[in-house]
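#data-curation
PF: Archiving a pair of folding outputs for the training set. Convention for this channel: one message per protein, sequence first, structure tokens after, nothing in between. First:
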Amino acid sequence: RVAAILAFWLLPPLVLIDHGHFQFNGVCFGLCLAAAGCVARGHRLVASVLFTSGLLFKQIALYYAPAFFFGILAVFVRQSDGLVSG
């Protein structure tokens, strides 16, 4: 777990790029990363709020939107108990 956190902190784009210009990308990325963690733990409402906050903070989060949409959709389809047949 600690290794995963360090791996995210030491991402080359976050370390090497000029933080004076791109510091807001890190905030957006942090909010989206927290949202992904909440999706993984099953806290969809908190994940939605965090992702929406990241999206409203900086629109570059639109690149992550399809992944969040299909991730949360998959959770709902799995919980439907056979209502959706495929």
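PF: Second:
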Amino acid sequence: NNIPPFPIPSLVQWMIKWHLFRIMMGAGLIKLRGGDRKWTDLTAMKYFFETQPVPNPLSRYFHWMPVAWHKFEVLSNHFV
């Protein structure tokens, strides 16, 4: 059983959420402020499936998706 025998203090929960928020926000902002045009012109995912470090068996399929789909993926990445 992995459930702790006592409730996690709300301060600890808040600190974990704050830390995760900062990591996610920082990752998004560095993409937009980094000067790489692939993120601002929404073409980053067009190249991602060719260069990802650990390719998935479905990567080839996703690489050939329409450009509009890749732009949607980048926009989703910015807003998530």
